[in-house]
Amino acid sequence: MIYAEILAGGKGTRMGNTAMPKQFLMLGGKPIFVHTVEQFLMNTRIDEIIICTPEVWIAHTRDTLKKYIKDLSRIQIVAGGATRNDTIMNGIKFIEETYGLNDDDVILTHDAVRPFLTQRIIDDNIEGAIKHGATDTVVEAFDTIVHSVDGKIITDIPVRSEMFQGQTPQSFNIKLLKEFFENLTDDEKEILTDACKALVIKGHDVHLVRGESYNMKITTQYDLKVANGLVEGQKI
């Protein structure tokens, strides 16, 4: 089976003083995460959509979905974890307990606050996860990347043509990802906060899927203004 796991477990502290986590803020007349869910619902290859949200917001998430989406038969809501990786594994645990795990099951993990992903990106992630076992969505880095260990002095300036900016989805064969996480030490789990990085560090190839510059993550108030501009532009 092919699962989409929408990561809506964050508190969105960089958004500033808001009444609710950023994934529930309005964007073009709907909460941000609803736009994201709709993109996955449009893709008929996705069998189930797992939304991982803070436990105290589960009822709000369910009520919001009922308001904006008619058919919820492919959607499940699960409590998120303390970290991103914990949240991913909570979703996988739910899948295993509810449906069981097959050797060819894949999961697309995606930020709830990236509502502008395309069907092409979703399809490429599905194909990549089936073929390679692990994929990461990226775009080329157009600006020079500066590395600094202490945040004060340049440590290195990597070759720009070899640099990419990570987006989501990050997609995996579920059994592969589960095995890698179960073999991490507690110290590694603290350090390896990105699922793809965990696989790379452990020696597994992660293949690239090309994203889009507008597949942006809405993190700040400025991002939200830009996103609203994109939504308004789509109406023209």
For the record, the count of structural domains works out to 1
Radius of gyration: 18 Å
User: Separation of termini?
Assistant: 37 Å
Shape: globular
The third-level CATH topology is: Spore Coat Polysaccharide Biosynthesis Protein SpsA, Chain A
Site (Transition state stabilizer): 14, 22
Function: Catalyzes the transfer of the cytidylyl group of CTP to D-ribitol 5-phosphate.
Binding site for CTP: 7-10, 81-87
Site (Positions ribitol 5-phosphate for the nucleophilic attack): 160, 217
Summarize, please.
With 236 residues, the chain is of the alpha/beta class.
Protein described:
It is a single chain. With 236 residues, this protein is α/β, with parallel strands linked by helices. The protein has one domain (2-234): Spore Coat Polysaccharide Biosynthesis Protein SpsA, Chain A (Alpha-Beta Complex). The protein is built from eight helices and nine strands. The strands form two sheets. The protein has a seven-stranded mixed β-sheet, sandwiched between helices. Helix 2 links the parallel strand 4 (48-53) and strand 5 (75-79). The protein is globular. It starts with a strand and ends with a helix. The mean pLDDT is 93.
Summarize the SSE layout with pairings.
Layout: E1 2-7, E2 26-27, E3 30-31, H1 32-41, E4 48-53, H2 58-68, E5 75-79, H3 84-99, E6 106-111, H4 119-132, E7 134-140, E8 164-173, H5 174-182, H6 186-191, H7 195-201, E9 207-210, H8 221-234
Parallel strand pairs: 1-4, 1-6, 4-5, 7-9
Antiparallel strand pairs: 2-3, 6-8, 7-8
